[in-house]
Amino acid sequence: MNHAVRQWRNTVKRASICLTPTIEGETLVRLGYFSMPLHPLGREWADTLREDRDAVIHADRLGFHDAFIGEHLTDRHENITNSLLFLATLIPETTQIRLGTGTTNLSHMHPVLVAAQSAMFDQLSGGRFILGISPGALPSDAEVLGILGEDRSKIFAESIAVITKIWESEPPYNIDLPDNRFKVTTATTIDLDLGVGVMPKPFQQPRPEIVGTVVAPFSKGVIAMGAADFHPMSANFLLPQWVATHWPNYLEGKESVGATANPSDWRVARTIFVADDEKTAESYAKTDANSPYRFYYSQMYKKMKKIGRLELFKTHRDQPDDEISLETVIDKLVITGTPDSVAEQILAFRESTGAFGEIVYAGLDWVDPSLAKRSMELMAQKVLPTINSALGE
Fold this sequence. Notes:
CATH superfamily: Luciferase-like domain
Order of helices and strands: HEHEHEEHEHHEHEHHEHHHEHEH
Strand content: 5-15%
Largest sheet: 8 strands, parallel, barrel
Number of strands: 10
Structural class: alpha/beta
Oligomer: single chain
């Protein structure tokens, strides 16, 4: 074990800090990938799509466990309009990485379409599909679809209930759930001899893994995830103390249905840049005017300020807005350094949040493709083995 991590472990032991939750007999942390994505204006759309594909292909070759890709209809920076369509182009280009929507915005389409298209994707990928879900948060997406005034969280809850019901049911379905606008049946038109009136089943049985993103402190949605056996992914732009609020709620949801929560099902995303030297790490991740990390958090800071959600960046809920700046956000949320330094920072972060099963690396614009790729390589080949070695001891 390297000196930096050994020193960190000894400090923890002296302080008698206990990891909560813990994973008995399980020491490995998986490595995942997530990209919104977020690119600066002025780049050709085809070029950024190609770059985003290259990032997932690179992650696959490096042994990343999964990759989640976001989607928006009306954002020129976050310019993948359909994550499932994008990911379908990667099925023949990858061999082992699991491919997840990050997310499918369930208020945007009928649950029958989501269930059928997801099932086909799962079949095409040989069972490598993960259904990542959310209501769809971008107001301009909702406006262009004519649902700006709708309760999108309610649509979301109704939709996922129908999707899972379709996958567990047989034709003609006759799905009519209480207080749910989506009624699903083929009773009038079904003809089993002709093979019509039958919806497709996914490759994975009884269903693919379902992952929900968690973007708020003390999220009550995590309780519902636990009760439904969906798995949470905590957002990369949340401070450690807010990430730590997610596990107790997930545990509560599991216990409400008599199930046991497993921390290996919890994914936590972080904004990470790893370099061979500290100078490069500090410049590319924080101080350089062209840093993709500065650009990312500049966009996030402006968006959260506009919609009145700066509390996501606050260390305590009554902290004044004027104490929040781009510099403080970058300083608190970007993990950067050499492999030893990054491993030490992630272990310290895990100590504050409790055990989780996967650290999800947030993919950003490739301002410098060589540095971006090298960071992913160091994360997979140096940082993750160091973390798991430390946890194993």
